[in-house]
Design a protein that fits this description.
This protein has a three-stranded antiparallel beta sheet with strand order 2-3-5. The chain has a two-stranded antiparallel ribbon with strand order 1-4. It has five helices and five strands. By secondary structure, the chain is of the alpha+beta class. β2 and β3 form a beta hairpin. It has a domain of 94 residues: Alpha-Beta Plaits (2-Layer Sandwich), CATH 3.30.70.3270. It is elongated, with a radius of gyration of 25 Å. The model has no long low-confidence stretch (mean pLDDT 89). One of its GO terms (molecular function) is 4 iron, 4 sulfur cluster binding. It is found in: Cell inner membrane. It holds the Pfam family Fer4_7. It catalyses: a quinone + NADH + 5 H(+)(in) = a quinol + NAD(+) + 4 H(+)(out). NDH-1 is composed of 14 different subunits. Subunits NuoA, H, J, K, L, M, N constitute the membrane sector of the complex.
Length: 151
């Protein structure tokens, strides 16, 4: 009879809820207001890639050495270049970076001799399509554009 009353009045449920609420102190509960307030990320966080440009002339710093593509364990960086007739240097033609396969290890950033490739602290890289995750040279130079929400 006692077991039946315990099942009817949900005694076990209330005992479990008591244990849960006893260990939750409301003054320690913290909720981030994410879209309105951007969270602070760690200083060494590696996020969205960016191709740096020279502020003096607006050209990319990439010298098309292909070391970043060779250092990448996922083979997601594709660099193509052509030799210039005038300067006799390799000039960057295309640079693609597949962020959907990237594990953000930073080996490509370390391999770059001129610091042209950088992993920034931007973390908003969501896309509705797989093609949106493959960034070309223009997207890498501009960097991700975080959505500004108004509350």
């Amino acid at each position: 009879m006692i077991e039946l009353l315990k099942k009817i009045f949900l005694v076990d449920l209330f005992q479990g809820l008591f244990v849960t609420f006893r260990n939750q102190n409301p003054k320690y509960i913290y909720t981030e207001q994410y879209p309105a307030e951007r969270p602070k990320v760690a200083e060494r966080y590696r996020g969205a890639p960016r191709l740096n440009i020279n502020p003096d002339n607006g050209e990319t710093l990439c010298i098309s050495c292909n070391l970043c593509a060779l250092a990448c364990p996922e083979n997601l960086i594709v660099v193509t270049s052509e030799r210039s007739e005038v300067t006799k240097r390799k000039e960057l033609v295309t640079f693609t970076y597949d962020t959907s396969r990237c594990m953000f290890c930073g080996l490509c950033e370390d391999a770059c001799p001129v610091d042209a490739l950088e992993l920034t602290q931007d973390f908003e890289m969501a896309s509705y399509t797989r093609e949106g995750q493959i960034w070309d040279r223009q997207a890498l130079e501009e960097g991700p554009r975080p959505t500004q929400y108004k509350c």
